[in-house]
Amino acid sequence: MYATPVDAYGRYEPVTLKNIHDHPGFRRIPEALRHEVEVAAQVLPFRTNPYVLDELIDWDAVPDDPIFQLVFPQRAMLEPEAFARVEAALAAGDRDALTREVWRVRRAMNPHPAGQLTHNVPELDGRRLAGLQHKYAETVLFFPAGGQTCHAFCTYCFRWAQFVGDRDLKFESNRVEDLVRYLRAHPEVTDVLVTGGDPMVMKTALLARYLEPLLEVETLRSIRIGSKSLAYWPMRFTTDPDAAELLRLFERVVARGKQLAFMAHFSHPRELETGPVRAAIQNLLGADAVIRTQAPLVRHVNDDADVWAEKWRREVSLGLVPYYMFVERDTGPKRYFEVPLAEAQRIFAGAYRQVSGLARTVRGPSMSAFPGKVRIVGTAEVAGEKVFVLEFLQARDPSWVGRPFFARYSETATWLDELEPAFGAARFFYEA
Ligand code: SF4
């Protein structure tokens, strides 16, 4: 039997700039902070909901509260001069000038890091399949058109460009038939990652239209769903009107011999504490889904080894599998959230040391960079030189995986392209 706890939140209704001022917690914070949110949210997508506001945010701890940081755009997320320009345009009440300023700032924020819009788009019969990405041999990403929003937005989102209403920046597909034909032409693909945005914003009937044709593809072994709905709207799996139907859909996937791998995005242990999330996890596991967890390491939200250790411990005790700690990508308000690679590695190691073997399924810190997923294994002193030891967990060329390589140690580098090869080499081995 699935858990159906008391329906405390009713139907999902987003909270945006239009109605956030009605929320009692938000009304309590200083006027100046509310104004800053209003300005920053002209640029960065802002959307949340009553569950996040009432269950996850500690309003007494605002603005430092990690979940407040996670969902509320802030002044320091924009460059001071960009903030001032947007603020002035907003105060002047000139919509056109405001739109121009907002887009000027957005375009400077690297909307599509690691070539995600232009690279890895597969072709079939000479036609580019928009809304699909095929970077690693065994996995194809599919961006269903109905799933390109979220129950709440993260301020650090690397897919923020999906939410700002510009068709040129967006990738999505309505054509599951293209995906099926592509999979039949590429039997090496064993996994499809359905992602967004968040596919769980779709009604079950719509999600089924995307998933059911995939069940006919024999070479496909896993359907992964990338989602933050367990953290942001767990009622999707309990009291939403079509929650039971959703769980039955997942059961059908498993009954057809495919793994339903739910890739859950949890940024902070607090997201795992509430009654609704626990009931939702129980229901998903009851539908035979496997839940793996992942999140980026970001300043102001989870830049602390104890926070990660606690998160992984709670995940394991709830039956989840810790999977990835990511390095924040080079996009959006990167400067506000970034943690240097050296510090990221120390945080990862500090957390990893604290947890039992059951939580050591986690891998990181990992950069989803252009050539592949690169993990910082650690630091070492080799022949008198301090170096980072790195490895590919995934790579454009599968032969690169698992081959250690070395970069000169840096206390400040925050991404792969800021690293230099160690031992005087002119380039890394994977650079032709
Ligand atoms: S849930 Fe995922 S896709 Fe949605 S805003 Fe957060 S990071 Fe971005």
TrEMBL record:
Signal peptide start and end residues: none
InterPro entries with a match to the protein in the record: Aldolase_TIM, Lys_aminomutase/Glu_NH3_mut, rSAM, rSAM_sf
Presence of keyword Metal-binding: yes
GO molecular function, one term: metal ion binding
Obligatory cofactor(s): pyridoxal 5'-phosphate
Assigned keywords, A-Z: 4Fe-4S, Iron, Iron-sulfur, Metal-binding, Pyridoxal phosphate, S-adenosyl-L-methionine
Protein name: Lysine 2,3-aminomutase
Organism: Oceanithermus profundus
